[in-house]
Amino acid sequence: MNVVLWIIAILLAAAFLAAGLMKLLQPRTKLISSGLGWAEDFGDGTVKLIGALEVLAAIGLILPAALDIAPILVPLAATGLVIIMAGAIVVHGRRKENQMIIANVVLLILAAVVAWGRFGPYSF
């Protein structure tokens, strides 16, 4: 199970690092025109904050355990992603973006599995 948790954490980290960097590095108007319609509902600072939180969570899923420095940060980062995805589900639900809700639920479940495993029976 430890290997499975590592694989899930790596996949989550890659996805959220890419998504977060995209939100941090591109202007909100470009994000909206590229299909992220939800960004219309938020200001520039909020979109950048979401991107920064996603990048920090991606780092927190891997580095603390890999470097054996404060490995408790791994399940905390996963829990943070669960919260972010819960918020994303609410936003996409209000906008009736059902495809995005499905993706957010999958990511939420994967992050919850990592949080459960690393807080519980497979902690570092």
From TrEMBL:
<feature type="transmembrane region" description="Helical">
    <location>
        <begin position="72"/>
        <end position="93"/>
    </location>
</feature>
<keyword id="KW-0472">Membrane</keyword>
<keyword id="KW-0812">Transmembrane</keyword>
<feature type="transmembrane region" description="Helical">
    <location>
        <begin position="100"/>
        <end position="119"/>
    </location>
</feature>
<feature type="transmembrane region" description="Helical">
    <location>
        <begin position="46"/>
        <end position="66"/>
    </location>
</feature>
<feature type="transmembrane region" description="Helical">
    <location>
        <begin position="6"/>
        <end position="25"/>
    </location>
</feature>
<dbReference type="GO" id="GO:0016020">
    <property type="term" value="C:membrane"/>
</dbReference>
<protein>
    <submittedName>
        <fullName>DoxX-like protein</fullName>
    </submittedName>
</protein>
<dbReference type="Pfam" id="PF13564">
    <property type="entry name" value="DoxX_2"/>
</dbReference>
<keyword id="KW-1133">Transmembrane helix</keyword>
<dbReference type="InterPro" id="IPR032808">
    <property type="entry name" value="DoxX"/>
</dbReference>
